[in-house]
């Protein structure tokens, strides 16, 4: 019989958790520093550049903020959306696919609806994106509810199917293919007409895109939705105990389908905003937010304000590595993913250490 | 003489509660010993100490005369003890043979041996099991699965076999078969302990009977020198006078009438079998029965959570069969069930007390928002009224102690002002003071003309608190008795199926004289069945 | 014309055998009740580690062992996080993929960039040891000889692993216990099977097998870090789909590899086929390449839906898959 066993700590303090997280992140950055040093890169310089997203000593620092926000907005919205479905213990790992179908739908509107004023066109693009993504999510939820089809594997397959759909659109030079740039002989995605490209509020040189404002509004909206509305309450109960939800007279299947629709539609919105703010689509338009969003939501324990903070941190990591990579040719922006992985592993460990403690077993008196 | 098992002065404490207190037990070689006791009398805990799941706090265990220490299931198996649990531990997608092979200690080699099948078949023949070793468990009936479980421990070389309520899931014919096997095992020199509540089975199969009550050892008697009446007395003890208030009832019309209710359990077996009963406003109807006699399924059926195979449920003259759980709630029928782990049905454990308050009526306020201010006030009221110990209304229910969890649950149920209150095991695991507080709450509700169905474990409590007690056994009605005109022994005999009072004195129990079932409806019913 | 067909069939095996490694490795892990979505990353790490060290030592055997160990360590990480720390399997697996692919790029940059302090990619090439071995007599049979019996040793090894694993699951005591854990860990535990140990061992071995698949891809691609795509190039994800298509059987994984490989080869070799058989197969060039790329995922999606819709399906998906097992401490 084992002498020691794991027990849940009787009191969970936020302070201890944060300290453990901090230790975990420090260790991760330490490992990263060793890797950097082995390449001959000064880790302090690199991290300095990364954490300030390359703004120090940069004449065009505002451009960096714009670039950073372009990475942040889709990641933030997608993480919020995935958090919504994870809260119900519904494993929607189809963020990538839902994002792609949304982007394609937005592009269809952008290329074909001309003559409408810009705001209206962009709204139409977002609505099309939300509907297409939302219906895709709804279909997955329907199969889960009706036939208990494994949602993890289904959404995984959809991610790749959608990836090949957009690749097909981007690689096929045909008359019907309005997605492509007609002037280019090589197939490349065309630029949207002016009415499909998002503008923003000019603050000096800095251009604050509307999508940023929408993203901030969404944080508040989701916070309120989960915390104060009947829907949010239902999500919490269904996620906590299916049996209790049924006992309380809730229609569990309906709640799952509705929430998956909302969750996927939000990812569609992220896609519509991203397409509109970059003025085109591409195979890499998701910037892996479907995957990274899962990590963000999980690191944040599905807590809305924490998701906002974590998204910012991960976006700094990603954009910071991107800008740093321009200075150090021996490393590329994938270093962000490497660090992100190490951070998640150490945070998972830290989380465990903060929740459990090793206790000596009380000796059984056997006489 | 040397015993197969001898337990001396075994005690086991969980927190402040004694599960076993100074228990002695002797199992002779080659005998069948019945272990008898009410729910919560400590039988399973005691047996778990033999199978290595718990270790005793004090006392000693002797196997074949040698003092041993059993600290894991492996130790237990090495000593030749095999336990057949009530819940099968089988792999559905495997054949019987493969299920046996997983734990086979002889099969040391890397490759699966060909002759294992022959050994299994031989072992089965030796004891008269009818089993096809290649049959998949998923295609087996409950009784076949049980046979497999027994065969499994025999194949692992067990000489001492403990069966935890083996007959609970079997039909009469299957029980006969099982007993034949047990006798055969006895002939082969195996020693058997069988845990059961059913006195007729005890009389039929055992050589001796050891009785436990409230965790304590009461007595051991020879089966051929005792009778069901004596065993019942040993099991339930003398009537204890509890000073629980029982306000007089003012008769009103039946509030909820149940006729011919038939419901299946999760495994698909009949759990509630053509049950008839009714509750009047302002009375407490107790439900007495051995654990697993269909109590849970009955609760779920009334609350609309379990499909009803057959039967009617008339609430204030309206049929509620087939209504959604929410519709039934809206009619004022409230159900709370405290499961053995004390969480689960009825509460969302990770949510706060506040949030749990509005679980059933969160949808009432108009608009998209929940009314948490109201919920918080309700939470405060419940905490105050039921003296719940909680640091704040915002603490997750999971973090409360057991008694407080129950108070929160019951508090929520009564605050909505139901007209029928179904409450199962509301005092499970509570201390005396908390229990009395719950009884008072129920009596307050009764005075408000609420009809209460009280599903309980302790007969003394039910006789003191309830106006009438209905006794069920295997999901079947055994009769309804008036608490003033019954004895503990009578209830005990009915619970174990030894006594049936359904048709006593020309009046069928469970059907009200002033039934709300309309005449023509009854006629329709007969016509329907005639079709 | 016969050459076109021979080359086509030959390519099915040569270019798709890593799928068999990825699939058999994942089957072993899933049989223990764990869903590891980190196949792509695990293969990437095995590929990089085995290839670099193999080049240094000039031994294919060493390369294989290093790939196995490196990916095995990734498996150890997955087991530690999900079995011991009870972390969520989906999140852990996905992160292993992100991490593993990023690791590939990190090493790739480090060894191929002139400014890096790392030693440049070098050493002897493993071409000779990796070259096809023509099995005497059998390889002389027309068509079949070329298609089946003149391959690199790692191809034969892939088939051998699949067959051995099939026998292991069906005919051995540990294989039986492993399957029991994947079906019902609590029952296996109650019968004295060490669930934690079994999970660790099989997750590590399964991951190691994936690593050898990664090494094969590195060698087959010529092992340069040029180009923006990772060597593994999505084969890890197709492997996860293939596990479902193969219905969790290593023997069916061989068939599945050939079927998915067939589509994959149609995508690459549609032009020669269309030229060789203009009348019957001329339409092949009209089908977009992306359709063939998506086909494994489309087929798997259909399999997933059909097997869940039809109630009496004979899916062999381990019942306890994806759920961590936690025994209440006694």
Summarize the structure in words.
The complex is a heterotrimer of chains A (367), B (531) and C (330). Chain A is mostly helical. In chain A, 68% of the residues lie in helices and 5% in strands. Chain A has 13 helices and four strands. In chain A, a hairpin with a 2-residue loop joins strand 2 and strand 3. In chain A, helix 1 packs antiparallel against helix 13 and helix 3 packs parallel to helix 7. Chain B folds into three domains: 234 residues, Rossmann fold (3-Layer(aba) Sandwich); 192 residues, P-loop containing nucleotide triphosphate hydrolases (Rossmann fold, 3-Layer(aba) Sandwich), CATH 3.40.50.300; 73 residues, no CATH class. The relative contact order of chain B is 0.11. Chain B is 32% helix and 24% strand. Chain B is α/β, with parallel strands linked by helices and 531 residues long. In chain B, helix 8 crosses helix 16. Chain C is mostly helical and 330 residues long. Chain C is 70% helix and 1% strand. Chain C has a two-stranded antiparallel sheet with strand order 1-2. In chain C, 51% of the residues are buried. The mean pLDDT of chain C is 90. Chains B and C meet through helix 2 and helix 3 of B and helix 8 and helix 9 of C.
The gist of it:
The complex is a heterotrimer of chains A (367), B (531) and C (330). Chain A is mainly α. In chain A, 68% of the residues lie in helices and 5% in strands.
What's the layout of helices and strands?
The complex is a heterotrimer of chains A (367), B (531) and C (330).
Chain A (H helix, E strand, L loop, with lengths): L3 E5 L5 H25 L4 H9 L9 H27 L7 H18 L5 H30 L3 H21 L28 E4 L2 E4 H19 L1 H11 L1 H6 L4 H27 L10 H11 L4 H24 L7 H21 E5 L7
Antiparallel strand pairs in A: 1-4, 2-3
Helix pairs in contact in A: 1-2, 1-13, 2-12, 3-7, 3-10, 3-11, 3-12, 4-5, 4-6, 4-10, 4-11, 5-10, 7-8, 8-10, 11-12, 12-13
Chain B lengths: L2 E12 L2 E12 L3 E5 L6 H8 L7 E6 L2 E3 L4 H6 L2 E4 L11 H7 L13 H12 L14 H14 L4 E5 L7 H16 L3 E6 L2 H7 L2 E6 L2 E7 L5 H9 L17 E11 L5 E11 L3 E5 L6 H8 L7 E6 L2 E2 L5 H6 L2 E5 L15 H5 L14 H14 L16 H14 L4 E5 L7 H16 L3 E5 L3 H7 L2 E6 L2 E7 L5 H8 L23 H12 L1
Parallel strand pairs in B: 3-8, 3-9, 6-7, 7-8, 13-18, 13-19, 16-17, 17-18
Antiparallel strand pairs in B: 1-2, 1-4, 4-5, 9-10, 11-12, 11-14, 14-15, 19-20
Helix pairs in contact in B: 8-16, 12-13
Chain C lengths: L1 H30 L7 H19 L2 H25 L4 H24 L14 H4 L2 E2 L9 H6 E2 L1 H19 L1 H11 L1 H6 L4 H26 L14 H11 L4 H19 L1 H7 L1 H4 L7 H21 L21
Antiparallel strand pairs in C: 1-2
Helix pairs in contact in C: 1-7, 1-10, 1-11, 1-12, 2-3, 2-4, 2-10, 2-11, 3-4, 3-10, 7-8, 7-12, 11-15, 12-15
């Amino acid at each position: 019989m084992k002498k020691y066993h794991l027990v849940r700590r009787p009191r969970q303090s936020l302070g201890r958790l944060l300290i453990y997280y901090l230790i975990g992140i420090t260790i991760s950055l330490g490992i990263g520093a060793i890797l950097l040093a082995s390449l001959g890169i000064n880790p302090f310089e690199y991290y300095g550049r990364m954490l300030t997203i390359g703004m120090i000593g940069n004449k065009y620092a505002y451009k960096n903020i714009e670039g950073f926000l372009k990475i942040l907005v889709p990641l933030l919205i997608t993480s919020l959306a995935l958090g919504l479905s994870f809260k119900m213990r519904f494993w929607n790992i189809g963020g990538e696919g839902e994002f792609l179908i949304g982007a394609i739908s937005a592009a269809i509107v952008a290329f074909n609806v001309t003559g409408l004023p810009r705001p209206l066109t962009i709204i139409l693009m977002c609505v099309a994106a939300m509907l297409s993504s939302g219906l895709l999510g709804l279909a997955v939820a329907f199969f889960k509810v009706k036939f208990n089809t494994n949602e993890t594997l289904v959404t995984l397959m959809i991610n790749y199917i959608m990836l090949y759909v957009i690749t097909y659109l981007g690689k096929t030079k045909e008359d019907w293919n309005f997605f492509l740039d007609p002037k280019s002989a090589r197939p490349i995605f065309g630029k949207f007409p002016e009415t499909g490209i998002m503008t923003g509020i000019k603050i000096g040189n800095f251009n604050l895109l509307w999508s940023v404002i929408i993203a901030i509004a969404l944080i508040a909206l989701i916070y309120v939705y989960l915390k104060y509305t009947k829907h949010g309450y239902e999500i919490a109960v269904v996620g906590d105990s299916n049996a209790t939800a049924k006992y309380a007279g809730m229609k569990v299947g309906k709640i799952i389908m509705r929430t998956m629709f909302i969750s996927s539609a939000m990812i569609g919105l992220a896609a519509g905003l991203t397409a509109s703010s970059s003025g085109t689509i591409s195979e890499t338009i998701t910037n892996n937010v479907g995957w990274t969003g899962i990590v963000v939501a999980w690191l944040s324990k599905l807590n809305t304000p924490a998701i906002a903070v974590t998204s910012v941190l991960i976006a700094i990591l990603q954009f910071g590595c991107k800008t740093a990579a321009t200075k150090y040719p021996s490393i590329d922006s994938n270093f962000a993913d490497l660090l992100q992985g190490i951070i998640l592993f150490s945070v998972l460990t830290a989380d465990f250490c903060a929740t459990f403690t090793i206790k000596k077993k009380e000796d059984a008196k056997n006489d | 003489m040397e015993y197969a098992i001898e337990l001396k002065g075994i005690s086991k404490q969980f927190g402040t509660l004694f599960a076993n207190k100074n228990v002695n037990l002797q199992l002779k070689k080659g005998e069948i010993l019945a272990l008898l006791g009410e729910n919560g009398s400590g039988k399973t805990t005691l047996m778990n100490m033999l199978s290595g799941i718990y270790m005793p706090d004090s006392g000693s265990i002797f196997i074949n005369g040698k003092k041993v220490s059993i600290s894991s299931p492996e130790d237990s198996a090495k000593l030749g003890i095999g336990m057949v649990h009530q819940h099968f531990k089988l792999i559905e997608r495997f054949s019987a043979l493969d299920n046996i092979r997983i734990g086979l200690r002889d099969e040391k080699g890397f490759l699966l041996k060909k002759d294992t099948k022959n050994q299994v078949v031989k072992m089965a023949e030796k004891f008269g099991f009818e089993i096809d070793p290649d049959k998949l468990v998923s295609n087996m009936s409950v009784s076949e699965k049980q046979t497999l479980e027994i065969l499994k421990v025999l194949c692992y070389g067990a000489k001492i076999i403990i069966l935890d309520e083996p007959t609970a899931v079997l039909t009469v014919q299957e029980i006969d078969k099982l007993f034949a096997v047990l006798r055969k095992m006895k002939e082969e020199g195996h020693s058997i302990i069988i845990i059961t509540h059913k006195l007729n089975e005890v009389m039929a199969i055992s050589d001796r009977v050891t009785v436990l009550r409230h965790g304590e050892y009461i007595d051991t008697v020879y089966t051929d020198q005792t009778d069901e009446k004596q065993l019942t007395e040993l099991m339930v003890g003398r009537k204890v006078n509890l000073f629980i208030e029982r306000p007089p009832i003012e008769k009103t019309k039946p509030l909820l009438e149940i006729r011919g209710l038939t419901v299946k359990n999760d495994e698909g077996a009949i759990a509630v079998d053509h049950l008839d009963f009714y509750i009047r406003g302002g009375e407490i109807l107790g439900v007495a029965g051995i654990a697993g006699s269909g109590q849970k399924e009955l609760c779920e059926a009334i609350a609309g959570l379990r499909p009803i195979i057959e039967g009617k449920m008339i609430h204030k003259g309206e049929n509620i069969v087939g209504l959604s759980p929410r519709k039934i709630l809206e009619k004022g029928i409230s159900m709370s069930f405290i499961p053995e782990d004390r969480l689960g049905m009825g509460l969302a454990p990770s949510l706060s007390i506040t949030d749990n308050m509005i679980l059933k009526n969160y949808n009432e306020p108009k608009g998209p928002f929940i009314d948490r201010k109201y919920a918080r006030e309700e939470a405060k009221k419940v905490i105050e009224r039921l003296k719940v110990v909680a640091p704040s209304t915002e603490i997750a229910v999971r973090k409360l102690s057991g008694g407080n969890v129950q108070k929160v649950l019951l508090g929520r149920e009564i605050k909505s002002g139901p007209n029928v209150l179904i409450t199962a095991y509301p005092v499970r695991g509570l201390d005396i003071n908390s229990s009395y507080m719950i009884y008072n709450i129920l009596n307050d509700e009764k005075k408000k003309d609420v009809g209460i169905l009280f599903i309980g474990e302790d007969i003394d409590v039910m006789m003191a608190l309830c106006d009438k007690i209905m006794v069920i056994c295997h999901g079947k009605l055994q009769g309804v008795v008036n608490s003033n005109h019954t004895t503990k022994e009578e209830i005990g005999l009915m619970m174990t199926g030894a006594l049936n009072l359904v048709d006593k004195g020309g009046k069928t129990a469970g059907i009200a004289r002033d039934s709300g079932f309309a005449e023509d409806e009854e006629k329709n019913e007969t016509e329907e069945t005639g079709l | 014309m016969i050459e076109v067909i021979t080359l086509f069939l030959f390519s099915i095996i040569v270019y798709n055998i890593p799928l068999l490694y990825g699939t058999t490795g994942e089957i072993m892990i899933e049989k223990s009740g764990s869903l590891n979505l980190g196949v792509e990353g695990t293969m990437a790490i095995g590929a990089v580690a085995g290839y670099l060290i193999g080049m240094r030592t000039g031994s294919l055997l060493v390369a294989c062992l290093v790939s196995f160990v490196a990916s095995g360590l990734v498996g150890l990480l997955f087991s530690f996080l999900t079995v011991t720390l009870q972390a969520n399997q989906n999140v852990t697996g996905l992160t292993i993929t992100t991490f593993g692919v990023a690791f590939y790029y990190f090493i790739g940059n480090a060894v191929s960039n002139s400014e890096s302090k790392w030693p440049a990619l070098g050493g002897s090439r493993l071409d000779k040891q990796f070259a096809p071995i023509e099995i005497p007599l059998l390889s002389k049979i027309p068509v079949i000889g070329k298609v089946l019996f003149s391959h690199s040793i790692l191809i034969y090894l892939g088939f051998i692993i699949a067959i051995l694993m099939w026998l292991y699951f069906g005919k051995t005591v540990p294989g039986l216990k492993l399957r029991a854990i994947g079906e019902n860990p609590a029952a296996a535990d109650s019968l004295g099977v060490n669930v934690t140990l079994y999970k660790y061992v099989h997750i590590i071995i399964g991951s190691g097998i994936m690593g050898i698949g990664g090494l094969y891809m590195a060698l087959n691609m010529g092992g340069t870090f040029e180009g923006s795509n990772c060597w593994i190039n999505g084969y890890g994800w197709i492997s996860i789909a293939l596990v479902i298509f193969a219905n969790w059987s290593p023997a069916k994984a061989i068939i599945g590899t050939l079927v998915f490989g067939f589509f994959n080869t149609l995508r690459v070799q549609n032009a020669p086929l269309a030229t060789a058989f203009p009348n019957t197969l001329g339409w092949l060039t009209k089908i977009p390449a992306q359709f063939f790329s998506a086909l494994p995922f489309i087929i798997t999606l259909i399999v997933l839906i059909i097997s869940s819709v039809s109630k009496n399906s004979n899916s062999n998906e381990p019942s306890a898959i994806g759920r961590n097992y936690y025994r209440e401490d006694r």
